[in-house]
TrEMBL record:
GO biological process terms, semicolon-separated: DNA biosynthetic process
Pfam families: RVT_1
Protein name: Reverse transcriptase domain-containing protein
Domain annotation Reverse transcriptase: ranges: 1-184
Domain of life (superkingdom): Eukaryota
Xref: SUPFAM superfamilies: DNA/RNA polymerases
InterPro entries noted in UniProt: DNA/RNA_pol_sf, Rev_trsase/Diguanyl_cyclase, RT_dom
Alphabetical list of PANTHER family matching this protein: REVERSE TRANSCRIPTASE DOMAIN-CONTAINING PROTEIN (PTHR33332)
């Protein structure tokens, strides 16, 4: 599943439940040091459970055996046997983490709970706020227990709840209180998920504002760094715009593209393109006083 597909599925699910007059919230989860804390016994257990071919299983066992971290200097020699972690960027790292994450996706969560395929996002819906709080807390307790089994911990400071006030079933002045362990999960008005800024009204105006600020900054820096090249060859800036800036502006359309039917949203998207297009066309930011 691509990021755009994941964003589209999440937005579609939230919109569907909100329009059906359900109370809906999105819970963003964060596994502390996910790749660094993958526990190797869990990896081997899940490989065996998935009926991994014996020859491949033996290779993984050999790969994970007798690994040590060694620190040595003139006065000290330390040797520590390790049993967890997979370097980000390694070929095996994504496989090992996906085995652990897939186990979470197979949990029998309470009714009306959906764990997104990226395993760090949970959508909960219910007919009333009280039921929403109960189901959300129950789902988080199951995920916490899953983490304990695999020796993983959730980062409480980065776990948050976004109530969806789109259809006015929930209010930010009286949000649902969802617990994880012995603490209440923080309620936020916006959260960043897969690079898109989600707000409680599902308007995505805050996302466009953030994209505009970053686009203006990138355009300004590019203009300074390569001013001489652009003066002679403005087509070079156009190539950079089409290859890098425009894809950045349009990223996340799986979540916000449906808002294009609203004029105010379309106007904000057009404004984002203004500064880079002025640089490409080499025109004034405002009409010259002698223009008629």
């Amino acid at each position: 599943m691509s990021c755009e597909t994941a964003l589209y599925h999440l937005r579609s699910l939230v919109e569907e439940k909100a329009r059906s007059r359900w109370c809906v919230c999105i819970i963003s989860l964060d596994v502390a040091g996910a790749f660094d804390n993958v526990w190797w016994p869990s990896v081997l257990y899940l490989l065996a459970k998935a009926k991994c071919p014996e020859n491949i299983y033996d290779v993984v066992v050999s790969y994970l055996s007798e690994r040590y971290v060694i620190f040595e200097n003139k006065a000290l020699h330390l040797k520590y046997k390790i049993n967890r972690g997979c370097p980000q960027g390694s070929c095996s790292g994504p496989l090992f983490w996906n085995l652990i994450a897939d186990d979470a996706l197979n949990l029998q969560l309470p009714q009306n709970c959906k764990l997104q395929a990226y395993a760090d996002d949970l959508v909960v819906w219910a007919k009333d706020k009280s039921s929403l709080e109960q189901q959300g807390s129950h789902a988080l307790e199951q995920l916490r227990a899953w983490g304990v089994r695999h020796k993983l911990k959730f980062n409480q400071s980065k776990t948050s709840v976004l109530p969806i006030t789109h259809m006015r079933k929930l209010k930010m002045t009286d949000p649902p209180r969802i617990a994880m362990g012995n603490s209440t999960v923080e309620v936020v008005e916006e959260m960043k998920y897969l690079g898109v800024l989600w707000d409680h009204t599902m308007s995505f105006h805050r996302h466009l504002k953030a994209v505009r600020q970053k686009t203006d900054y990138l355009t300004h820096r590019l203009s300074i760094i390569a001013a001489k090249l652009y003066n002679r060859k403005p087509s070079l800036l156009k190539r950079i715009y089409e290859g890098a800036i425009e894809p950045y502006i349009l990223y996340g359309h799986g979540a916000w593209a449906h808002r294009m039917k609203f004029k105010s949203f379309t106007e904000k998207l057009v404004v984002i393109q203004r500064r880079p297009l002025l640089a490409i066309a080499r025109t004034y930011r405002i009409p010259h006083m002698h223009c008629k």
